[in-house]
TrEMBL record:
The keyword Protease does not apply. One of its GO terms (cellular component) is membrane. GO terms for biological process: amino acid transport. The chain crosses the membrane at residues 20-41, 128-151, 163-189, 201-224. The lineage of its organism: Eukaryota, Viridiplantae, Streptophyta, Embryophyta, Tracheophyta. Residues 1-243 form the Amino acid transporter transmembrane domain. Keywords: Amino-acid transport, Membrane, Transmembrane, Transmembrane helix, Transport. It comes from the Eukaryota. It comes from Gossypium raimondii (Peruvian cotton). Its main location: membrane. This is Amino acid transporter transmembrane domain-containing protein. It is found in: Membrane.
Length: 249
């Protein structure tokens, strides 16, 4: 749940504004597709003994070239991270003697060092307590939004738009991001004490996350209407305690 229901929940009201009420169909469509591909991923891992990661699947399907191709895709994300951070901090660089690192290379190196320890984990059960904290934080943020709308009397008075064709692609991108948790599915599957329960776990997680996403989208859009910001915490009155709790979480 923590993988699927992360920071994307903050943007679901904005996605509802950009896509309209009918755009919520896209959210549930992505949920079904992501659930189905999760089942397909399990079948891939069970197709041969010893398959535990995406590179393993790549090698089983296409040989060594498949493993190399998947590893190259991971390098692309490091390059993307370096370029994005360099655009935010263009003056960051390191110069030690004859060694000089441009902002792109510096941030690519930092991103690599930050991510590297996580790829050594083969048993994600050691992170279960941290994951539980993330789930609590997501639910708490949604409860704060509900509290502001009902108890603090911001109200649910905006009717919204049925469908926004012009900005629907924005909603598609945001809703698609909500279910981008497949990267850790192989590790979760191989870490389970009873892997046969993986489909049931997927059903429960996708159902809970979809309800949270849809509920947050409906509450946020009916509360703030066309003034809905990219994150609902930006719309919440800053002087309210519930708003501060939502931001802190």
């Amino acid at each position: 749940i923590n993988v699927l229901c992360g920071v994307g929940i903050l943007s679901t009201p904005y996605a509802a504004k950009e896509g309209g009420w009918l755009g919520l169909i896209i959210l549930f469509t992505f949920a079904l597709l992501s659930f189905y591909t999760g089942l397909l991923l399990r079948q891939c891992l069970d197709s041969q003994p010893g398959l535990e990661t995406y590179p393993d699947i790549g090698q089983a399907a296409f040989g060594t070239y498949g493993r190399i191709a998947l590893s190259a895709c991971c390098v692309e994300y490091i390059i993307l991270e370096g370029d994005n951070l360099a655009s935010l901090f263009p003056n960051a660089y390191v110069s030690l003697g004859g060694l000089e690192l441009s902002p792109q290379r510096l941030f690519a190196l930092m991103a690599t060092l930050a991510v590297l320890p996580t790829v050594w984990l083969r048993d994600l059960s050691v992170l279960s307590y941290i994951s539980a904290g993330g789930v609590v934080a997501s639910i708490l943020a949604v409860l704060c939004l509900f509290w502001v709308g009902l108890i603090d009397q911001v109200g649910f008075h905006n009717k919204g738009t049925t469908l926004n064709i012009a900005t629907l692609p924005v909603a598609v991108g945001l809703y698609g991001y909500c279910y981008s948790g497949h990267a850790v599915f192989p590790n979760i599957y191989t870490s389970m004490a009873n892997p046969n329960k993986f489909p049931s776990v997927l059903i429960a997680c996708f159902a809970i996350c979809s309800l949270l996403y849809a509920g947050t989208a409906v509450m946020g859009y009916t509360m703030f209407g066309e003034a809905t910001e990219s994150q609902f915490t930006l719309n919440m009155p800053k002087d309210l305690i519930a708003s501060k709790i939502a931001v802190w979480t």
